[in-house]
Every structure is written in structure tokens, then in C-alpha cells.
Amino acid sequence: MIKIITSFISSMKFGMLLLSLIVLCSLAGSLIPQGYEASYYRAEYNEFSTILLFLQLDRVFSSWYFIVLLLFLCINLVFCSILRLKNTIKKVKKGLNVASSAVCHPIDKESINRVENFLKSQRFKLYKHDESTIYYKNIIGYYGSFFVHLSLLLILSFGSFSMYYTTIEDVDIMVGESVTLSDGTAIKVNSFQIENEYGETDYKSILEIRDKHGNTSAPMAVSVNHPISFDGHKYYQQTYGLAGYITVTNKGIESPLYLKEQAFITLDDQNGVMYFEVFPSYDRMEDGSLSIQKDWSKGYTNPIYQIAIIENDNITEGMALPGTSYQVGEMLCTFNNPVFYPGIRVKTSPDIIMLLLYISFMLMIFGLWLCFFHIPTYVKIDHEGYAIVSPKSTERIKSNINAMIKTCEREENNQC
Amino acid sequence: MLNLLFFTVLALYLCSTILQFISIAFKKDIIGKKAWLISLIGYCLLTVYLIIRGIEARRLPMSNQFEFAVSLAWGIGLINIFLHFRLKKDWESVLVLPMIFLILSYAAFLPREINETMPALKSIWFGLHIGSAVFSYGAFVLAGSLGLKYIINHKKDSDKAYKQDYLSYQLIAFGFLMLTVVILSGCIWAEQAWSTWWSWDPKETWALITWLIYAIYLHQRINKGIQGIKMAWYSVIALICVLFTFIGVNTLLPSIHSYL
């Protein structure tokens, strides 16, 4: 019974079944939005939401059955590649013997010479066996399948390990300010730009990082596609935002406020200015009213604040342009030009895992290259003719040899 | 000027497609040769178009759906020319020329303005990732075309059908290798740009689905020796998956890969 089960688990049939099931799960995971609250699915899918949530189709890629499929795939890969390596090595060793026992296709002596010259020109190696000669090439191609399956197993293993042992922390930091992470690392943003000196969009922050031991780095630039590493962390220019910049003056003391979300600016919790958000632009209509533009993709050309003044239980909603001020009691709020700030992602993961992952990637490409472009081929030549022996189709070499023989025969006939 | 060049190319491929069909319908080889010549001229102009566009944009012309579609048509054309001259296999052009025309027609409906490249696309992996996608999808399109031709013609000429079937397999093998390069280079790029090498984004997931579908094809072909009509049908159905990955995902599914 155990033998039957292990035989099935190591079979190609089971492997193909697993791949098909992974395709189906992936199809579901790509077509159904993933990771939303249950209420979203109830609203979108009505009566189907119950079964959808029961089958965990809202989070297919982290569901128990998907993980089980991947585990079985790993087991299948171990059986069909690692444990078959011994057989592959035996096949390599037996290759010349198998070729030497092949029955040759009869051709004339002249053609035999031409075939031998052709094979030498194609850089085939030579092996003498009794009265025949075996030409062989691409023996390393036998290992192509092994490398491909091994690399897939390594990618699944290292990839899972990488995802499990990676921690990510996203921080928004105003320019000139510093944020301390949970492990004591402090990040300070010296500057942030959204355009480079040529006017091209380029999100770049200059950071100074102080590790938990108190060592401070030199200013380092981080931009999209160019993360930086320091003291075991990797820093990414992940995103950016726009914060309202308001100066609050109270009894001559100015306090700058950077507001990324709705906030109530007040001294006594009753009267003050409610900040809602900043819009990228506005148009002044003919009647003097303002038409707010909410499309930020064209940039913040004419920023404008949406606010409400709350004083003595009176609420006055309105808009504030940069440069305007509002007095509420003893507090003066001055609205300045909004400022951009970077969103920095801090990732902690073992560097060695990424390196091993990349090595596995290269191994896979190498394995596929061997599988498709380095097909092991043996050509036996004896006094009677030639025979081509290969574990896979050898259409190309067969047709090349046949075409060459036919061309020579035609030339001879023409000469006659 | 670029628009004029693009529509000239489109017109030339339409012309060559029509002439190709007339040549087959009336069995006139001379018309078929003219169709091939016109398609070559169209291909040369398409190459010029991409070069000029690349110079104007100051980058490889592959950064949005329009540019990728045009590059894909160019990639299919290049493989087709290689097969024609190097391998002397000219019978696959019958379906390839209409394919190129259809892809260019699809591109004609997309925004054609040259926009500034987004920061996420400014990477050393850009050329390798998207360039290998061009050749991967191109090879799969050609393989699917050959599969369709096999289905239509396999009973009339079994020798030619055998060659078409084998060539389809070779194209799928090449496309599979290229698709693997696409996925793996994409993983490395994603880690640098978004900090995570795999995020089950719809584009990534569909590229993986395509990869798995062709992996199953290759296992059946190489290990089980299944050939002929079954594999021809498989290559046609798999092509539908490729087309969905190319067009459907960008159009229908929200994705961080949607650079329309």
C-alpha cells in the first residue's frame, strides 16, 4: 500500500495534477479580489459570498489547501528529480554502450566519410568501440531536467523562507524630521524630491540612519529601483504623500504642523480650525466660485485647502489658499504651501536567502537551456552506415545529416 | 510623422494579409511572393518606427500597452523572418501575417502619445524583462498559429503536418525559456522596486498560469511523447491564455502592472 502511494506521489501524473490544481487556484485568486473584509464580498457576490468565504477564495494564496498543494509539489519534485538522479547518472554511463548496440542505417562508404567529417565539424567527441566509432555530444543535457526540478524546489523553499522571515515596516517621515523604528533604528529625512534636475519625475530621499548602537550613516540617497542597505535593514523609496503645512501662532510662539489626514487644530477643544485635506488645483469660475480639481496625476499646480472654522458653535466651511491666515480666538492659523514627504519601507530579511534565491533562478535558466538546446546525441558509425541514438527527438541532426548526404549525391549525379 | 508611419505599416500588413489569402484561394504563388515582399517592407518600416519612437522617448519603446503591442508585432515578425530565411519554412506565414495585423490593429486603438516614463519603469531590468516577454509571447503566438494550421491541414499533407507539429514544439520550448526569463527577471526587479519579489499581482499570477500551462504541454510532449492533433489543440488553447495575459489582465483586472 505504501509502495503504491509513494509510487503515485513520485509520478509525473501526480505532478501534472498538482500543476493543474495550482492553475485553477491561481485563476480564482486572480479573478476574485483578494484580501478584503467579508462585508465587501457579501455586498459584491450576494448569495455566492457564503461559499466564497467558506472556500477561502478571498485569500486563495494563503489558504490551507493552496499551501498543501505547494507542499505536495515540493514532495513530488524531490521524488521525481533528486531521487531519480541516480538513474540519470546510470543513463549517462550506459549511453555509449546503448549507442554501440544500435543498428546502423546502410549508406555508401563515401557518405560515411562525409557524415564523419560533418560530425567532427559539429564538434562531436569521438569514442572507439570495437569496429565502430561513436560520436557523442551534449552529455550534460541529461542533467537538464534534474536542474530544472531542483531549482523549482529551491525557489519554492527559499521563497517561502524569505516570505516567512521578512518583516516590513512602512514609515512616513516629514523632511527634516526623524522617526524611530521598533528596534531603535532612527531614520532622518534630510531632503525629498519628486523631480530631478532635468524636470523628470524621480522620487528620491536623502536619508541619515542611526542604528540601534548609535552609529550614524553618511547621507544616502534612496529612490525607486535603488534601495539602500544599512545595518541589516533595506530601505525602499516606497511612496510619497502631500501634507498640509500650517503654522499655528499662539502668544507669539509659532508651531509648524504637517497634516497628512483630517485634524482639528485647537487650543481649547472647542474653537479652532478643522483641516480636511489639500486638493491639487482649482479653477475660478466666472461667478467667482471655485471649482476644485481632484486629479493629482497632473501635479499640484494650484493647491488649495478644504477647511472649516469652528467658533462659538458656529461652523463655517470653506477653502483656504496658501498664504492666507485665519484667527480663531488667540490662535492664528497660517496656511502655507503643502509639502511632499516620502514613504519609506524598511525591510528586514536574511540577505543570504535572497542570494540563494537568485542562484536558484540562474540554475533554472541553465537547466532549461540544457533541456532544450543541449540534447544528448550519439551517432554510431561503422563500415555499414550510421545510427543516431538520443533520449529525445533528434530531428535537427537527422535532417542535417540527410540533407548533407542528399546534396552530395545530387552533386555526384550532376558530375556524372 | 510617427502616426503616418504607423498607419502605413498597418496598411502594408493588411495588404499582405489579403494578398496571402488570395494567393492560397486561387493557388497563385506569384501573388504569395508579392504578399511576402510587402510584409517585409512593412516590417522594415515597423523597425524604423520603433527606432524613431525610442529615440524621441529616450528609452526602449516598450513602456506602455501600445508600445508593447507594437513591439510584440515586431517580435513575431522577426521570428517569422528567421523561420522563413533560416529554416526555409514559409508555410507558417499564412496565419502569422493576419496575427501581426490584428495586434497592430489592437494597438491602433490605444493611446499613442509618448509620455514620460514612470520612476518604477526606470530600471536596468526593463529591457531584459519586457524584451524577453516580446519574444516569449511572439513564439507562443507563432506556435498557436502553427497548431491551428495543423488542425486545418493535417489530413491533407501528413509530412508537412508533422513538420508543423515539431516546429510548434520548438517554438513553445523557446517561448517557455523566454517566459521563465520574464518571470525571474520580474521577480528580481519587483524586489528592488516594491521590496517584494512576488505579490500575486494579477499580471504576475497570469504569467505564472501561462508558464504552468506550457510546462504541462512540455511534460506531455517530452516525457509521454504525445504529439499531433492533441498538442495542436493544446497550443491553440494555451494561446488564448497568452492573449488574456497580454490584453485581458491590463484591461479587466486591477494591477500594479497596468501601464496603459
What keywords describe this structure?
heterodimer, A: 416 residues, alpha+beta, seven-stranded antiparallel sheet, five-stranded antiparallel sheet, 10 helices, 22 strands, 37% helix, B: 260 residues, mainly alpha, 8 helices
Description:
Chain A has helices spanning 2-9, 12-31, 38-45, 49-54, 64-82, 85-100, 109-121, 144-164, 351-373, 395-415; strands at residues 105-106, 125-129, 132-137, 167-172, 178-180, 186-195, 201-210, 220-223, 228-230, 233-250, 253-259, 263-266, 272-279, 281-284, 290-293, 304-311, 314-320, 325-328, 331-335, 339-348, 377-381, 385-389. Chain A is of the alpha+beta class and 416 residues long. In chain A, a hairpin with a 5-residue loop joins β5 and β6. Chain A is elongated and about 110 Å long. Chain A contains 10 helices and 22 strands. The termini of chain A are far apart. With 260 residues, chain B is mostly helical. Chain B is 77% helix and 0% strand. Chain B has 8 helices and no strands. In chain B, α3 packs antiparallel against α4 (93-108) and α3 packs across α5. Chain B is globular, with a radius of gyration of 19 Å. Chain B starts with a helix and ends in an 8-residue tail after the last helix. Chains A and B meet through α2, α8, β7, β10 and α9 of A and α6 and α7 of B.
Summed up, what is this model?
The complex is a heterodimer of chains A (416) and B (260). Chain A has 416 residues and is α+β, with helices and mostly antiparallel strands.
Helix-strand layout with pairing:
The complex is a heterodimer of chains A (416) and B (260).
Chain A: H1 2-9, H2 12-31, H3 38-45, H4 49-54, H5 64-82, H6 85-100, E1 105-106, H7 109-121, E2 125-129, E3 132-137, H8 144-164, E4 167-172, E5 178-180, E6 186-195, E7 201-210, E8 220-223, E9 228-230, E10 233-250, E11 253-259, E12 263-266, E13 272-279, E14 281-284, E15 290-293, E16 304-311, E17 314-320, E18 325-328, E19 331-335, E20 339-348, H9 351-373, E21 377-381, E22 385-389, H10 395-415
Helix pairs in contact in A: 2-5, 5-8, 7-10, 8-9
Chain B: H1 2-25, H2 29-57, H3 65-85, H4 93-108, H5 126-153, H6 158-194, H7 202-222, H8 229-252
